[in-house]
Amino acid sequence: MRIATWNVNSVRQRADHLATWLKERAPDVVCLQELKCVDEAFPAEAIEALGYNVAVHGQKTFNGVAILSKHPLSDVRRGLPGDDDDQQARYIEALVEAPSGATRVASIYLPNGNPIGTEKFAYKLAWMERLIAHARDLLALEEATVLAGDYNVIPEPRDARNPALWVDDALFQPESRGAFRRLCALGYTEAVRATTDADGVYTFWDYQAGAWQKNNGIRIDHLLLSPQAADRLASASIDKHVRAWEKSSDHVPVIVDLSDR
DNA sequence: ATGGCGGTGGAGCACCGA
Fold this sequence. Notes:
Elements: E1 2-7, H1 15-25, E2 29-33, H2 44-48, E3 53-57, E4 65-69, E5 73-78, E6 91-98, E7 101-109, H3 119-139, E8 145-150, H4 174-185, E9 189-190, H5 191-195, E10 204-205, E11 217-218, E12 221-225, H6 227-230, E13 233-238, E14 254-258
Parallel strand pairs: 1-2, 7-8
Antiparallel strand pairs: 1-14, 2-4, 3-4, 5-6, 6-7, 8-12, 9-12, 10-11, 13-14
Helix pairs in contact: 3-4
The protein binds one DNA strand of 18 nucleotides through residues 9-10, 12-13, 34, 36-37, 60-62, 112-114, 152, 166, 169-171, 204, 206-211, 218, 220, 247, 250.
């Protein structure tokens, strides 16, 4: 079971890249973020033509998340529990029913939170508390669960090429990193760090200032595995080559392979 | 680096991202 996450920075702008990459990697499940379109504008037909079922939680202009799956999707939840007034489309969850068994998958677009000291940073931290509460509830189901997405958190200094550049940024604040650690400490395994201790492992490179050419990247896209999923973790990888494609997203896909039961 | 780039909405340039 191959499960991936990718912040595409506009699914309409990235439709060709997405199709190319789906054919190249043939993931079973893909969590997308930053669709930047409403449900009706999502390019579902092109994706369905490649053999995927689609569950979308879109929003005009900003945010938007989706789950693509070669296997049937059920039990779809749109929106993160804990605040009925939250209108931002940043969370979708579904049960993926593969022949080898079911896996619960969430596509997460955690708030950026910049600049610090504003309502935006408070919203980020509050959203993380809601995510922790929901992630705790999911653990109680004792299922194979994968929480995948753009967490907008640099977990550790080694997850940035130049950590000093990020000390005043919401992605690297002690509060952000602490909430991410508490999320993992509930019992989730962060897949990439479970498979490598290497430096220089990034998932995002800014469009500006030649960040890609200088490998000035950060690691902010993560897949968190419940114990039942972590037991099956075979490998994790980052599709860095996609960042070199013409008019690429500023994020690249991150993949986990789970062995069949 | 004084966001230098890219996407959206909507037809200017403000707003957002990280």
